[in-house]
Amino acid sequence: MKISARNRIKGTVASITRGAVTSHVVLDVGGTPITAAITNEAVDELALKQGETAYAVVKASDVMIGKD
């Protein structure tokens, strides 16, 4: 896989929960879950399956923190 993003996190697909339009894909990264909401079409195109290796690719312009 060649992509320009540098924030790639390798993990194992722990679960895929399909909705009407989007799916929640949970990657297990050393015991820490990372969840991504992607389209059902993307899940199908990637042929994602529980137990296989996949990558979380993070591309964000900023990160915010909030507190009450």
TrEMBL record:
<protein>
    <submittedName>
        <fullName>Molybdopterin-binding protein</fullName>
    </submittedName>
</protein>
<dbReference type="InterPro" id="IPR004606">
    <property type="entry name" value="Mop_domain"/>
</dbReference>
<keyword id="KW-0500">Molybdenum</keyword>
<dbReference type="InterPro" id="IPR008995">
    <property type="entry name" value="Mo/tungstate-bd_C_term_dom"/>
</dbReference>
<feature type="domain" description="Mop">
    <location>
        <begin position="2"/>
        <end position="67"/>
    </location>
</feature>
<dbReference type="Pfam" id="PF03459">
    <property type="entry name" value="TOBE"/>
</dbReference>
<dbReference type="InterPro" id="IPR005116">
    <property type="entry name" value="Transp-assoc_OB_typ1"/>
</dbReference>
